[in-house]
Amino acid sequence: MDRPHPQPPPGRAGRGRGDPLTTEPRCRPIAPHLYQIVLPTPFPVGPVNVYLATGEPLTLVDTGPRTAETRAALETALAGLGYTLADIRRIIVTHAHADHYGLAATIVREGGAEVWTHPRNRLVLADYRAERQRRLAFYDAVLTQAGVPPRLRRAIRRSSHRMAPFAQAVPVARTLEEGDEVVLAGRPWRVLFTPGHAGGLICLYEPEQALLLSNDHLLLKISSNPLVEPPPPGGGERRRALVEYIASLERTASLEVEVAWPGHGDPITDHRALIRQRLAFHEQRAGRLRTVLDAEGRTVYQIVQALFPRLDPLNTLLAVSEVIGHLEWLEVRGEVRRWREGEVVRWGAVHAPPTAPA
Hints:
Elements: E1 26-31, E2 34-39, E3 48-53, E4 59-61, H1 68-80, E5 90-92, H2 98-101, H3 104-111, E6 114-117, H4 119-126, H5 128-145, H6 150-161, E7 174-175, E8 181-184, E9 187-193, E10 202-206, E11 211-215, H7 241-253, E12 259-262, H8 271-291, E13 298-299, H9 300-307, H10 313-332, E14 336-341, E15 344-349
Parallel strand pairs: 4-5, 5-6, 6-7, 11-12
Antiparallel strand pairs: 1-2, 2-3, 3-4, 8-9, 9-10, 10-11, 13-15, 14-15
Helix pairs in contact: 4-5, 5-6, 6-10, 7-8, 8-10, 9-10
Protein backbone atom coordinates (compact mmCIF):
# COMPACT_ATOMS: atom_id res chain seq x y z
CA MET A 1 0.00 0.00 0.00
CA ASP A 2 3.00 2.22 0.05
CA ARG A 3 3.48 1.23 -3.56
CA PRO A 4 7.16 1.45 -4.39
CA HIS A 5 6.93 2.24 -8.05
CA PRO A 6 4.83 3.87 -10.71
CA GLN A 7 2.61 1.60 -12.72
CA PRO A 8 1.39 1.62 -16.28
CA PRO A 9 -2.22 2.83 -16.36
CA PRO A 10 -4.47 0.09 -14.91
CA GLY A 11 -5.25 -2.63 -17.41
CA ARG A 12 -1.90 -2.44 -19.21
CA ALA A 13 1.01 -4.79 -18.83
CA GLY A 14 4.16 -3.70 -17.03
CA ARG A 15 7.13 -2.62 -19.08
CA GLY A 16 9.94 -4.27 -17.14
CA ARG A 17 12.30 -6.15 -19.45
CA GLY A 18 12.58 -9.77 -18.40
CA ASP A 19 13.28 -10.79 -14.82
CA PRO A 20 14.28 -7.52 -13.11
CA LEU A 21 16.38 -9.32 -10.49
CA THR A 22 18.75 -10.65 -13.16
CA THR A 23 19.45 -7.22 -14.63
CA GLU A 24 23.15 -6.32 -14.51
CA PRO A 25 23.96 -2.88 -13.09
CA ARG A 26 24.73 -0.25 -15.68
CA CYS A 27 26.70 2.86 -14.86
CA ARG A 28 27.27 5.81 -17.18
CA PRO A 29 28.34 9.43 -16.82
CA ILE A 30 25.57 11.93 -17.55
CA ALA A 31 27.45 15.12 -16.63
CA PRO A 32 30.88 15.92 -15.16
CA HIS A 33 31.22 13.94 -11.91
CA LEU A 34 27.61 12.72 -12.11
CA TYR A 35 26.68 9.12 -12.91
CA GLN A 36 23.48 7.22 -13.52
CA ILE A 37 23.44 3.73 -12.00
CA VAL A 38 20.70 1.34 -13.12
CA LEU A 39 19.82 -1.22 -10.43
CA PRO A 40 17.59 -4.31 -10.47
CA THR A 41 14.34 -4.45 -8.51
CA PRO A 42 11.86 -7.29 -7.87
CA PHE A 43 8.96 -5.13 -9.07
CA PRO A 44 7.04 -5.16 -12.38
CA VAL A 45 8.38 -1.69 -13.20
CA GLY A 46 11.83 -3.24 -13.68
CA PRO A 47 15.13 -1.48 -12.91
CA VAL A 48 15.41 1.75 -10.94
CA ASN A 49 17.80 4.60 -11.77
CA VAL A 50 19.87 6.12 -8.98
CA TYR A 51 22.48 8.86 -9.34
CA LEU A 52 25.96 9.20 -7.86
CA ALA A 53 27.59 12.62 -7.51
CA THR A 54 31.31 12.36 -6.85
CA GLY A 55 33.32 14.94 -4.95
CA GLU A 56 32.61 16.13 -1.42
CA PRO A 57 30.37 14.86 -0.07
CA LEU A 58 29.99 11.69 -2.12
CA THR A 59 26.22 11.68 -2.67
CA LEU A 60 23.75 9.05 -3.81
CA VAL A 61 20.37 10.28 -5.06
CA ASP A 62 18.00 7.40 -4.22
CA THR A 63 19.22 3.91 -3.36
CA GLY A 64 17.07 1.17 -4.83
CA PRO A 65 15.09 -1.31 -2.69
CA ARG A 66 16.38 -3.42 0.16
CA THR A 67 17.28 -6.67 -1.61
CA ALA A 68 20.52 -8.62 -1.74
CA GLU A 69 20.55 -8.32 -5.53
CA THR A 70 20.17 -4.54 -5.47
CA ARG A 71 22.91 -4.18 -2.89
CA ALA A 72 25.29 -6.38 -4.87
CA ALA A 73 24.59 -4.44 -8.06
CA LEU A 74 25.16 -1.10 -6.34
CA GLU A 75 28.41 -2.33 -4.79
CA THR A 76 29.60 -3.53 -8.20
CA ALA A 77 28.83 -0.16 -9.81
CA LEU A 78 30.52 1.75 -6.98
CA ALA A 79 33.60 -0.48 -7.15
CA GLY A 80 33.94 0.34 -10.83
CA LEU A 81 34.29 3.99 -9.83
CA GLY A 82 36.63 3.26 -6.93
CA TYR A 83 34.11 3.51 -4.07
CA THR A 84 32.36 1.35 -1.49
CA LEU A 85 29.05 1.78 0.32
CA ALA A 86 30.96 3.12 3.32
CA ASP A 87 32.31 6.01 1.21
CA ILE A 88 28.83 7.46 0.65
CA ARG A 89 28.43 10.48 2.93
CA ARG A 90 24.98 11.71 1.87
CA ILE A 91 21.80 10.13 0.53
CA ILE A 92 19.10 12.31 -1.01
CA VAL A 93 15.76 10.49 -1.02
CA THR A 94 13.46 11.89 -3.69
CA HIS A 95 10.32 10.24 -2.32
CA ALA A 96 9.24 7.61 0.18
CA HIS A 97 8.64 4.60 -2.06
CA ALA A 98 10.65 1.50 -1.27
CA ASP A 99 12.32 1.17 -4.67
CA HIS A 100 13.82 4.63 -4.15
CA TYR A 101 14.95 4.54 -0.52
CA GLY A 102 14.76 0.93 0.69
CA LEU A 103 18.53 0.43 0.84
CA ALA A 104 19.19 3.71 2.69
CA ALA A 105 19.35 2.18 6.18
CA THR A 106 21.92 -0.38 4.98
CA ILE A 107 24.14 2.35 3.53
CA VAL A 108 23.85 4.45 6.69
CA ARG A 109 24.97 1.48 8.78
CA GLU A 110 27.97 0.93 6.52
CA GLY A 111 29.48 4.41 6.77
CA GLY A 112 27.23 6.83 8.63
CA ALA A 113 25.82 8.66 5.60
CA GLU A 114 23.28 11.42 6.25
CA VAL A 115 19.80 11.16 4.74
CA TRP A 116 18.25 14.32 3.27
CA THR A 117 14.66 14.46 2.03
CA HIS A 118 11.46 16.52 2.02
CA PRO A 119 9.67 16.97 5.39
CA ARG A 120 6.66 14.96 4.17
CA ASN A 121 8.91 11.90 3.94
CA ARG A 122 10.48 12.17 7.39
CA LEU A 123 7.92 10.11 9.29
CA VAL A 124 7.75 7.33 6.70
CA LEU A 125 11.53 6.95 6.75
CA ALA A 126 12.09 7.41 10.48
CA ASP A 127 9.36 5.05 11.73
CA TYR A 128 8.78 2.73 8.82
CA ARG A 129 6.93 -0.03 10.68
CA ALA A 130 4.50 2.25 12.54
CA GLU A 131 3.86 4.34 9.44
CA ARG A 132 3.13 1.20 7.42
CA GLN A 133 0.51 0.16 9.98
CA ARG A 134 -1.05 3.63 9.88
CA ARG A 135 -1.19 3.48 6.09
CA LEU A 136 -2.64 -0.02 6.04
CA ALA A 137 -5.49 1.19 8.26
CA PHE A 138 -5.97 4.26 6.07
CA TYR A 139 -6.14 2.27 2.85
CA ASP A 140 -8.56 -0.20 4.37
CA ALA A 141 -10.85 2.75 5.18
CA VAL A 142 -10.40 4.13 1.63
CA LEU A 143 -11.32 0.76 0.12
CA THR A 144 -14.35 0.47 2.40
CA GLN A 145 -15.59 3.92 1.37
CA ALA A 146 -14.93 2.95 -2.25
CA GLY A 147 -17.32 0.01 -1.92
CA VAL A 148 -14.67 -2.70 -2.37
CA PRO A 149 -16.04 -6.04 -1.08
CA PRO A 150 -14.53 -7.38 2.19
CA ARG A 151 -12.94 -10.45 0.57
CA LEU A 152 -11.12 -8.31 -1.99
CA ARG A 153 -10.04 -5.86 0.72
CA ARG A 154 -8.44 -8.76 2.61
CA ALA A 155 -6.65 -9.92 -0.56
CA ILE A 156 -5.32 -6.40 -1.15
CA ARG A 157 -4.06 -6.24 2.42
CA ARG A 158 -2.25 -9.58 2.02
CA SER A 159 -0.62 -8.34 -1.19
CA SER A 160 0.46 -5.14 0.52
CA HIS A 161 2.19 -7.03 3.34
CA ARG A 162 4.62 -8.42 0.77
CA MET A 163 6.13 -4.93 0.45
CA ALA A 164 7.31 -4.77 4.07
CA PRO A 165 10.80 -6.35 3.64
CA PHE A 166 11.92 -3.93 0.92
CA ALA A 167 12.73 -0.98 3.23
CA GLN A 168 13.80 -0.24 6.79
CA ALA A 169 13.53 2.75 9.09
CA VAL A 170 16.28 5.33 8.69
CA PRO A 171 16.74 8.70 10.46
CA VAL A 172 16.54 11.91 8.45
CA ALA A 173 19.40 14.33 9.13
CA ARG A 174 18.13 17.28 7.09
CA THR A 175 14.94 18.24 5.32
CA LEU A 176 14.82 19.85 1.88
CA GLU A 177 12.18 22.38 0.86
CA GLU A 178 11.23 24.05 -2.42
CA GLY A 179 13.99 26.46 -3.46
CA ASP A 180 16.73 25.00 -1.27
CA GLU A 181 20.14 24.63 -2.89
CA VAL A 182 22.16 21.42 -2.82
CA VAL A 183 25.71 21.14 -4.17
CA LEU A 184 26.12 18.02 -6.30
CA ALA A 185 29.22 17.24 -8.35
CA GLY A 186 30.54 20.72 -7.60
CA ARG A 187 27.45 22.54 -8.92
CA PRO A 188 24.43 24.10 -7.19
CA TRP A 189 21.17 22.24 -7.81
CA ARG A 190 17.78 23.66 -6.86
CA VAL A 191 15.23 21.60 -4.98
CA LEU A 192 11.81 21.51 -6.66
CA PHE A 193 8.85 20.30 -4.62
CA THR A 194 6.72 18.35 -7.11
CA PRO A 195 4.05 16.40 -5.21
CA GLY A 196 1.73 14.13 -7.13
CA HIS A 197 3.04 10.61 -7.64
CA ALA A 198 4.07 10.85 -3.98
CA GLY A 199 3.23 13.51 -1.44
CA GLY A 200 6.84 14.32 -0.58
CA LEU A 201 8.39 14.02 -4.03
CA ILE A 202 11.24 16.36 -4.94
CA CYS A 203 13.21 16.87 -8.15
CA LEU A 204 16.67 18.41 -8.48
CA TYR A 205 17.34 21.04 -11.16
CA GLU A 206 20.63 22.48 -12.41
CA PRO A 207 19.74 25.49 -14.60
CA GLU A 208 23.19 26.16 -16.09
CA GLN A 209 23.35 22.72 -17.72
CA ALA A 210 19.53 22.56 -17.94
CA LEU A 211 19.51 19.15 -16.26
CA LEU A 212 16.64 17.76 -14.22
CA LEU A 213 16.75 14.70 -11.98
CA SER A 214 13.05 14.01 -12.35
CA ASN A 215 12.84 10.59 -10.62
CA ASP A 216 9.19 9.42 -10.85
CA HIS A 217 7.68 12.85 -11.51
CA LEU A 218 8.48 12.49 -15.22
CA LEU A 219 8.84 9.04 -16.77
CA LEU A 220 9.09 8.48 -20.51
CA LYS A 221 7.07 5.28 -20.97
CA ILE A 222 5.18 4.81 -17.71
CA SER A 223 2.32 6.76 -16.21
CA SER A 224 3.38 8.28 -12.86
CA ASN A 225 0.26 7.13 -11.03
CA PRO A 226 -0.57 9.78 -8.39
CA LEU A 227 -1.26 7.72 -5.29
CA VAL A 228 -3.80 8.50 -2.58
CA GLU A 229 -2.00 8.99 0.74
CA PRO A 230 -3.20 9.45 4.34
CA PRO A 231 -3.36 12.89 5.93
CA PRO A 232 -0.51 13.84 8.26
CA PRO A 233 -0.63 12.36 11.77
CA GLY A 234 -2.61 14.45 14.21
CA GLY A 235 -5.14 15.72 11.70
CA GLY A 236 -5.30 17.82 8.59
CA GLU A 237 -6.81 17.19 5.19
CA ARG A 238 -5.78 14.38 2.89
CA ARG A 239 -3.92 15.70 -0.13
CA ARG A 240 -5.56 15.50 -3.54
CA ALA A 241 -2.83 13.59 -5.35
CA LEU A 242 -3.87 14.13 -8.97
CA VAL A 243 -4.71 17.79 -8.41
CA GLU A 244 -1.20 18.26 -6.97
CA TYR A 245 0.34 16.25 -9.81
CA ILE A 246 -1.31 18.36 -12.52
CA ALA A 247 -0.09 21.55 -10.83
CA SER A 248 3.43 20.09 -10.53
CA LEU A 249 3.48 19.15 -14.22
CA GLU A 250 2.43 22.65 -15.23
CA ARG A 251 5.20 24.16 -13.08
CA THR A 252 7.79 21.78 -14.52
CA ALA A 253 6.78 22.72 -18.06
CA SER A 254 7.98 26.27 -17.36
CA LEU A 255 11.57 25.10 -16.78
CA GLU A 256 14.27 25.08 -19.44
CA VAL A 257 15.40 21.45 -19.54
CA GLU A 258 17.80 19.86 -22.01
CA VAL A 259 17.57 16.39 -20.46
CA ALA A 260 15.46 15.02 -17.63
CA TRP A 261 16.92 11.93 -15.97
CA PRO A 262 14.10 9.80 -14.54
CA GLY A 263 13.74 7.20 -11.81
CA HIS A 264 12.95 4.46 -14.34
CA GLY A 265 13.68 4.05 -18.01
CA ASP A 266 15.26 6.29 -20.61
CA PRO A 267 16.18 9.98 -20.41
CA ILE A 268 13.66 12.57 -21.56
CA THR A 269 14.81 15.07 -24.18
CA ASP A 270 11.53 16.95 -24.69
CA HIS A 271 9.93 17.32 -21.29
CA ARG A 272 7.25 19.73 -22.51
CA ALA A 273 6.00 17.28 -25.14
CA LEU A 274 5.88 14.55 -22.50
CA ILE A 275 3.97 16.81 -20.11
CA ARG A 276 1.46 17.61 -22.85
CA GLN A 277 0.98 13.87 -23.37
CA ARG A 278 0.48 13.29 -19.65
CA LEU A 279 -2.04 16.11 -19.33
CA ALA A 280 -3.91 14.83 -22.38
CA PHE A 281 -3.93 11.32 -20.92
CA HIS A 282 -5.49 12.50 -17.67
CA GLU A 283 -8.05 14.63 -19.50
CA GLN A 284 -8.97 11.62 -21.64
CA ARG A 285 -9.18 9.34 -18.59
CA ALA A 286 -11.38 11.87 -16.79
CA GLY A 287 -13.60 11.99 -19.87
CA ARG A 288 -13.99 8.20 -19.84
CA LEU A 289 -14.86 8.34 -16.18
CA ARG A 290 -17.57 10.95 -16.78
CA THR A 291 -19.26 8.61 -19.25
CA VAL A 292 -19.98 6.04 -16.52
CA LEU A 293 -21.37 8.57 -14.03
CA ASP A 294 -24.95 9.71 -13.69
CA ALA A 295 -26.88 11.83 -11.22
CA GLU A 296 -27.79 8.76 -9.10
CA GLY A 297 -24.15 8.10 -8.41
CA ARG A 298 -21.72 5.21 -8.33
CA THR A 299 -19.13 3.99 -5.87
CA VAL A 300 -15.47 4.18 -6.79
CA TYR A 301 -15.34 0.39 -7.04
CA GLN A 302 -18.28 0.35 -9.46
CA ILE A 303 -16.41 2.85 -11.62
CA VAL A 304 -13.24 0.73 -11.43
CA GLN A 305 -15.21 -2.33 -12.56
CA ALA A 306 -16.64 -0.39 -15.49
CA LEU A 307 -13.27 0.98 -16.62
CA PHE A 308 -10.88 -1.86 -15.67
CA PRO A 309 -12.88 -5.09 -15.37
CA ARG A 310 -10.00 -7.58 -14.93
CA LEU A 311 -7.48 -6.62 -12.24
CA ASP A 312 -5.52 -8.48 -9.59
CA PRO A 313 -5.83 -7.25 -5.98
CA LEU A 314 -2.85 -4.89 -5.94
CA ASN A 315 -3.73 -3.34 -9.28
CA THR A 316 -7.27 -2.92 -7.96
CA LEU A 317 -5.83 -0.68 -5.24
CA LEU A 318 -3.94 1.32 -7.86
CA ALA A 319 -7.09 1.64 -9.95
CA VAL A 320 -9.11 2.79 -6.93
CA SER A 321 -6.41 5.38 -6.23
CA GLU A 322 -6.43 6.56 -9.84
CA VAL A 323 -10.22 6.84 -10.00
CA ILE A 324 -10.33 8.78 -6.72
CA GLY A 325 -7.71 11.13 -8.15
CA HIS A 326 -9.72 11.83 -11.28
CA LEU A 327 -12.95 12.23 -9.32
CA GLU A 328 -11.31 14.77 -7.03
CA TRP A 329 -9.93 16.62 -10.05
CA LEU A 330 -13.42 16.73 -11.58
CA GLU A 331 -14.84 17.80 -8.21
CA VAL A 332 -12.46 20.77 -8.07
CA ARG A 333 -13.71 21.68 -11.56
CA GLY A 334 -17.33 21.48 -10.39
CA GLU A 335 -18.23 18.53 -12.64
CA VAL A 336 -18.99 15.87 -10.02
CA ARG A 337 -20.18 15.72 -6.44
CA ARG A 338 -19.99 13.16 -3.64
CA TRP A 339 -22.21 12.05 -0.78
CA ARG A 340 -22.20 9.32 1.86
CA GLU A 341 -24.55 6.38 2.09
CA GLY A 342 -23.65 4.60 5.30
CA GLU A 343 -19.95 3.75 5.17
CA VAL A 344 -19.78 4.07 1.37
CA VAL A 345 -19.17 7.25 -0.65
CA ARG A 346 -21.02 7.69 -3.93
CA TRP A 347 -20.09 10.04 -6.75
CA GLY A 348 -22.46 11.57 -9.28
CA ALA A 349 -22.34 13.88 -12.26
CA VAL A 350 -23.23 17.53 -11.87
CA HIS A 351 -25.37 18.63 -14.80
CA ALA A 352 -25.55 22.26 -15.76
CA PRO A 353 -29.04 23.78 -15.40
CA PRO A 354 -30.87 24.33 -18.70
CA THR A 355 -30.32 27.65 -20.37
CA ALA A 356 -33.30 30.00 -20.04
CA PRO A 357 -34.91 30.93 -23.37
CA ALA A 358 -33.99 34.34 -24.72
